[in-house]
Amino acid sequence: MEPTIHDGVLIMVDTKRTNLTSAIYAFTYDGALFVKRLNHLPDVLEAYSINKEYPPFVIDKHQMNAFKVTVRVVWVGHMI
Fold first, then answer.
1. How far apart are CA 14 and CA 79, in angstroms?
2. Antiparallel, parallel or unpaired: β 10-14 and 23-29
3. pTM summary value
4. Are the C-beta atoms of 72 and 13 separated by less than 8 Å?
5. Which residues contact 19 (CB under 8 A, 6 or more apart)?
6. At a CB cut-off of 8 Å and minimum separation 6, what does 18 contact?
7. Can you tell me the distance from the alpha carbon of 55 to that of 13, in angstroms, rounded to the nearest whole number?
8. Which of 16, 22, 27, 59 is 20 to 30 A away from residue 41, measured at CA?
9. What sections of 1-80 are H helices per DSSP?
10. Residue 21's pLDDT is what?
């Protein structure tokens, strides 16, 4: 998620905010953990990173059994 979230920084998450809106979430998909911006569209989730090195991907309604929202990211801290 660089430049928004740098590798190794602290993030604060809200474990109660799991209804999907267009925001940044930590989630598991197909056995892997991701921190990505999710766009919740009808019948699909679009997951993408601000970092252009990581292409976006789509999770459609047939793949939802492999998807689980963990938490919503609400704060990012940078170490100095």
1. 21
2. unpaired
3. 0.75
4. yes
5. none
6. 69, 71, 72
7. 24
8. 16
9. none
10. 78
The residue assigned the tokens 């991701």 is 34
Longest pairwise C-alpha distance within the chain: 44
CA 66 and chain centroid, separation: 14
Distance of CA 36 to the CA centre of its chain: 3
Residue 11 DSSP SS3: strand
Place of tokens 């940078």: 78
Q: Strand ranges (DSSP E) for 1-80?
A: 10-14, 23-29, 32-41, 44-48, 57-60, 67-77
Provide the token pair at 54: 């990581």
Specify the 3-state DSSP secondary structure of 7.
coil
